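User: Quick sanity check before I run a bigger batch. Here is a single chain. Can you write out its predicted 3D structure?
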Amino acid sequence: MKTQSMLLVALASAPMALAHTIFTDFYVDGMPQGDGVAMRMNPNAQHASAPIASLDSDDMACNVGGTKGVSRVQSVKDGALLTFEIRAWAADPSKERLDRGHKGPCAVYLKKVDSASTDKAAGDGWFKLFDHGYNNATSRWCTDEIIDNNGLLSVHLPKGLEGGDYLARPEILALHAAKDGDPQIYTGCAQIFLESSGTLVPESTVSIPGYMKYGEPSTDFDIYNKPNSQYVVPGPKVAKLTARGVQSGSTSQTDGLKPEGCIMENGNWCGKEVPSYSDEIGCWASDKACWDQSDTCYNTAPPTGHAGCKLWEDKCNDIQAQCNAKNFKGPPNMGKVLTPEKKGIDVGQIMATAGGGVADDAPAPALRTSSMKKEEEKPEATTTPVKASPAAPKPTTSDSYERPLIVHEVSPMAPAPAPANHSSLSKVDAPALTITVAPSSAGAPAPTAAPQVCPKGWKCVTEVELVTTTVYVTATYDGVAKRVSVHQRRHVHRA
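Assistant: Done. Predicted structure follows.
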């Protein structure tokens, strides 16, 4: 029984390997744009939710790989409500959004650019639209507000901003390890085109990276031993806007539009209808064209997953079945849009209105939803959020906050499986999911000895044997093998 006890202790004490978060998508006036659409995020699915490695890195602008844009740019109206969503598992919004111990401020920045899809993001030109740190009246951090709002951070764009391309950058700074020199930044960028004839521009801008440094009060703050009410958010103040005089930005979007003929979306990939056919040669040619697009879909899928690729596979399987049945007129359901219908949501709490942030010592911001009328038509409804418990005293272990028991699962993002219904194709079996218990965070100091007398409210453990097992699973997908098999199958069919 000792081995079993040791394993239980190990599970209970093991921190979650990816107890972090990633900005996965955004909503415009409560309408989802689609997972990964027009979003710059870390392309590595296994590490997408990790914090930025260095405050001095270009990754600070739009995350790892964020100096390279994506193909789509999403249009938004003047004064639109932008809502950014975070997830600990990029492909699964049903799971935890952010570990409650990751306490800290949040902010939203904008950068006016010539091209949202090609601008390198890093450098000068950024201005702050909103920030929020610690609210002394409610004893809550901005991260508490986001977590309790189902991972959503909503802000209004100021009315009258100059039109054209922008990068919209939400930011979370987690301070749980800041005292140890490890402030953790989580960020990403939405590529947007602002449909506006306004003339407002910021009076000043800052550089990212550069606006936040190590060793500053905002980045090395000890949330366990200092009054949290003393915290001051990093970076510049919310930008003051001034009229340029003459509108110089573009009011008509020409780049980054959804391609014509797009019938299926997955992130920034669009599937287009395959050629029509009326004979066997044309049928198999369309079948191949469908699977070639499927390969591209899987190979370019963002960390948010490949749900659209799976739906596209159904179309390819249908074409293949028709070819096998000698029904050489198609494709079936030609031109039908396969992308699931997007439905608007109630975004819940809105952290800021156009033109200002939330004062850290002010009462909790009012709750506004996308279904409410404008302020001049109906007063805002205010609610009092649940007051969080005061910060616990600093424990003597290497981790300075309590973590819930969470067993890390293998990321749902995996290379694409071979089509399931290819009766004549070589089959690639998808690997089974493996539960992995991760060791403590890399580089963390060894735990100190437990005190002889437990502080009030704490449970002391005098001896813990930590047993961890890491299982590595490599899944491969050989798109070339699949295409060769298709060729062989067609050859057999024609014989």
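The helical segments are 2-13, 59-62, 142-148, 280-299, 307-324, 479-494.

User: Great, the batch can go ahead then.
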